[in-house]
Amino acid sequence: MPAAFLKISNLLPRQNWLRVTVALACSIHCTLILRDNIRWVSATNRGQAAVASHNYEDAERYWKKALKRAQKFDVVDRRVSESYKHLINHYLFCDNIKAAEPLLVRYLALASANAAFDQTYVAAYQYQLAFIYACSGRLDQARTYFEKSLALSRKQHGENSMAVLSNLRGLANVYTDEERFAEADNLLKKATVISKNIAFDSHDAACLYTDMAILANRAGRYKEAIALSEKALNFAEKQHNHECRVQALYLNNMGCVLLDAEKFNEAEPFLRRALKINDSLAKTDSDPIARNLRSLARICREQKKYDEAEALARESVSIRRKILNRNNPDLAESLHELSQILLAQHRYSEAETLALEAYDVELRANGLRNTGWTDSGCVLAEIYAATGRVKLASDVLQNILAFRAKQLGATHPRTVAVQKQVDLLLNRTH
Q1: What is the pLDDT of residue 19?
Q2: 31 pLDDT exceeds 60?
Q3: Whole-model pTM above 0.90?
C-alpha cells in the first residue's frame, strides 16, 4: 500500500478506511476509462483525417488502434461497432478481402449474440461476406449469407429496394455457378421487375445485364449472351466514359462470351483492350489481369500460336497461385487452359500433371455441384487416349457425358461436345 495512503489512513477513523479505498479505486477506474476514451477519439479522428487526405496506409494504422481501444469497452458500446465499421470499410475500399473477411465474421457474430449491438450494418455486411465467399468459390456459405441478407433487407427496406435487388442478383449468381439455371433465371426476373420501380442508373443496369449474360452463356444460349453483354457494355460506357477498371471488366466479359461462342477474332480486340486498361491501372499480381491473360491464351491456342499462348497461360497461373487459395475454381480455370496448350503440343506428361491438379482443385471447390471438374476430365481423357490408355479414356468420357447430360441437358453445347469426343474415340478403336 502506498506510504501516502498509510499516512492518510492513520488520520481517519477505522470505519472510514473502506470508504476511502473504494473511492480511490473508483477514481482510478474512471481515470482509466477516460484515458481509453481520449485515446480512442484521437485514433478515430486521425483515421478520418488520413482518409480525407487519401493517406490510406496511415488510416489503416489508426483504425487498428481505435479498434484495439474500443475492445476495452462493453461489447454493445457504439464505439465497438463504429471501430469495426471503420476498419471493415477501409479494407473493402482497398480490396483487401483477406483482411476484411475475419472482421466481417467477427462483427456479424457480435451482432448475432448481442441484441443491443448496433444492427444497422448487419444486412450490408452479410451481403459483403456472401460476395467474398462467392468470389472464392465457397458457394454453400455464399448462399447462406445471401439468403440471410435478403431476408433482413426485405424486413428493413421492403421488396422494392436496391438492397433486395442486390441480394437477388448475388443469389442468382450462386445458382448460376451451381448450374441451377431455372432458379437463377427466376431470381433475375424478379430483380428486373424491382429495377423498374426504383432509381436505377447505367451502372446498375450494366451489372444486371451482365448477370443475365453470364447465366445465358453458362446455359449454352450464346446468341442471347452476346446480345446481353453488348447491352451491359453500352450501359457501362455511358456511366464510365473514360478507361477504368470497371470498363475493363465489361470489356473482358464481352470478350469471354464471344470466346465461348467460338468467335475468336471478334473476342480478341475486347480482351486486349481490357488487358491494356488493367495493366495501366492494376497491380501486376491482380485477378483481372490473370483473367485477361487466360482468355487471350485460349485465343492464341485456337490460332495455334502456342509459344505466346503458353507464356500467357503460365503468367495467369503464376498470378493466381500467388493471390488465390488452392481451392479456388479460378485457379483451376488457368491450370486447365495451360494443360490444353501443352496437350496441343503433345507434351502429355506436363499436360497430365496440370490437368490432374485442375481436376482436384475443382472437386475440392465445388464437388459435384457443377460441371467444372469435367473440363479437366475431358483433357485427361484426351491424354489417356493419346498415350494408349484407351479404356481409361473411354470410362472417363462416359462418366462425364452422363453427368453433363443430367446437369445441363443432352442438347447443351458442352454435352454435345463430349458426345463428339466419345464418338471420335470409338472410331479410333475400330
Answers
A1: 55
A2: no
A3: no
Three-class secondary structure assignment of 80-94: HHHHHHHHHHHHHHC
Q: Which positions ≥6 away from 383 have C-beta within 8 Å?
A: 343, 348, 351, 352, 355
Q: How many CA atoms lie within 13 A of 337 on its CB side?
A: 31
Mean pLDDT, residues 309-332: 91
**Helix (H) or strand (E) segment spanning residue 272:** helix 264-281
In the numeric block, the cell 447491352 is attached to 231
Cα separations in angstroms, 413 against 218, 219, 225, 226:
10, 9, 14, 16
**Amino acid identity of 7?**
K
Task: Output DSSP code: residue 36.
Answer: H
Is the separation of the CB atoms in 172 and 187 below 8 Å? yes
Write down how long the chain is: 430
Whether the Cβ atoms of residue 250 and residue 234 lie closer than 8 Å to each other:
no
Tell me the three cell numbers of residue 130.
456472401
- What gap in Å lies between CA 173 and CA 392, rounded to an integer? 35
Q: Is 53 exposed, middle or buried (0-12, 13-18, 19+ CB in 10 A)?
A: exposed
Measure Cα distances from 350 to 92, 336, 337 in Å. Answer: 39, 12, 13
Distance from the Cα of residue 416 to its chain's centroid: 31
| CA proximity to 218, closest of 175, 179, 268 | 179
User: How far is CA 341 from each of CA 59, 250, 265, 358, 425, rounded to the nearest angstrom?
Assistant: 45, 26, 18, 14, 20
Q: Which amino acid is at 175?
A: Y
Cβ neighbours, 10 Å, residue 142: 23
Nearest to 114 by CA among 90, 84, 91: 84
- The span from the CA of 287 to the CA of 178, in Å, is 22
Task: Taking the CA atoms of 280, 282, 288 and 292 in sequence, report the sign of the dihedral they define.
Answer: positive
Of residues 275, 270, 347, the one with CA closest to residue 306: 347
- Residue 28 pLDDT > 80: no
Residues 6+ apart with CB under 8 A from 339: 351, 352, 354, 355, 358, 376, 379
pLDDT at 24: 44
Task: Give which of 398, 380, 280 is closest to 336, Cα–Cα.
Answer: 380
Q: What is the DSSP string of 346-358?
A: T-HHHHHHHHHHH
- What cell numbers appear for 219 in the block? 446455359
